[in-house]
Design a protein that fits this description.
By secondary structure, the chain is an alpha+beta fold. The protein has one domain (about 5-70): N-terminal domain of TfIIb (Single Sheet). It has helices at about 5-10, 55-65, and strands spanning about 20-25, 25-35, 40-45, 45, 55, 70. The chain starts with a helix and ends with a strand.
């Protein structure tokens, strides 16, 4: 399943809002919710969509300045 398809079927588990792909070095690093300021990491090509595992989006962006948002 490609990233665009994932974004069409997945929603933020906390607020049910839309997600944006965060790309780093041409691979999907996480799915971001702008409303919650949360980043759901991708591990072994699998998005971890657990609220408990979410990272702070602002902090993640500071730690990963080369990451780009994909719409």
């Amino acid at each position: 399943m490609n990233t665009k398809e994932l974004l069409q079927i997945l929603a933020c588990p906390k607020c049910l809002g839309s997600l944006q792909a965060m790309m780093e070095q041409n691979s999907l690093a996480g799915l971001a919710c702008q409303t919650c300021k949360a980043l759901y990491p991708v591990r072994n090509d699998i998005p971890v969509m657990l609220v408990e595992e979410a990272l702070n989006l602002d902090q993640w962006r500071r730690d990963h300045p080369a990451a780009e948002e994909q719409h």
